[in-house]
Specification:
The chain has about 250 residues and is α/β, with parallel strands linked by helices. It has ten helices and nine strands. The protein has one domain: Vaccinia Virus protein VP39 (Rossmann fold), CATH 3.40.50.150. α4 packs parallel to α5 and α8 packs antiparallel against α9. The chain is globular, with a radius of gyration of 17 Å.
């Protein structure tokens, strides 16, 4: 770690923390929520997360025999979808910095009967342990906002893309539909922590997740960050009134 980063701070939800401490704090959140992660996703979104992921998968344009990487892939919904797209002649790597989440992803994938053409790697999005130009498509779903150095992660993902490859970022964003923001705020800060307490016995982690969404760059800011990382032909699609956005960019 550089001397500069020793004195830097960043956000952990609405709390300001030392730069070096955020990854450890985030790891604690996901160690806690991992056992109930999929159930809570369904409850929190009313099942909409499945539609958001289906849209994301429709944008990969993967073909049989290609290679894909799911960064911060958690319990593996996107990775399993991409494995079906690339088939047994291709390869999908499911990666996550959190060992508990990665283990749940592996278990769910095996339970789904998928044992071929998929690998599991515990990895930090900021410094991916893959060779330059390894993948035709990279996805990161609901993970970028938890990364300490988002710019480093975007550069790292671009590096391991093949020329012509695509990065897709599925992430909570900033509501743009008229009248949606106050309703969304009430749900996020009043109802979501209660759900977390009742279902996962952990209100604090879900309060952090709500706060982390508010600290994540908005649609246009993330678009600019992707361009700064060297990605081209960048664009985004708002889903559910901007509650979620899918950003896409290419390496040429």
């Amino acid at each position: 770690m550089t001397v500069e980063n020793e004195s830097k701070t960043t956000h952990f939800g609405f709390e300001e923390v030392a730069w070096r401490d955020k990854a450890k704090r985030v790891r604690g959140v996901f160690d806690s929520v991992a056992p109930k992660y999929d159930l809570m996703n369904d409850l929190m979104s009313g099942g909409l997360h499945r539609l958001w992921k289906a849209f994301t998968l429709s944008q990969t344009h993967l073909r049989p025999g290609q290679r894909a990487l799911d960064v911060a892939g958690g319990t593996g919904d996107l990775a399993r979808g991409m494995q079906r797209q690339v088939g047994e002649r291709g390869l999908v790597v499911l990666s996550d910095i959190n060992g508990a989440m990665l283990a749940h992803g592996r278990d769910r994938t095996v339970d789904a009967g998928i044992v071929r053409s998929i690998e599991y790697v515990q990895a930090n999005a900021e410094c991916l342990p893959f060779s330059d130009g390894s993948f035709d498509c990279i996805t990161i779903g609901f993970g970028l906002r938890n990364v300490t150095d988002k710019s480093a992660a975007l550069h790292s993902m671009r590096r391991v893309l093949k020329p012509g490859g695509q990065l897709i970022v599925l992430e909570f964003s900033h509501p743009v539909a008229p009248g949606l923001k106050p309703l969304y705020d009430t749900y996020s800060f009043k109802i979501l922590p209660l759900l977390g307490q009742w279902v996962a016995n952990d209100a604090d982690s879900y309060r952090y997740l709500a706060e982390s969404i508010r600290k994540h760059p908005d649609q246009e800011t993330l678009l600019a960050m992707m361009r700064e990382a060297g990605l081209e032909d960048c664009r985004y699609h708002n889903l559910s009134g901007g509650i979620v956005a899918v950003h896409r960019g290419y390496k040429y």
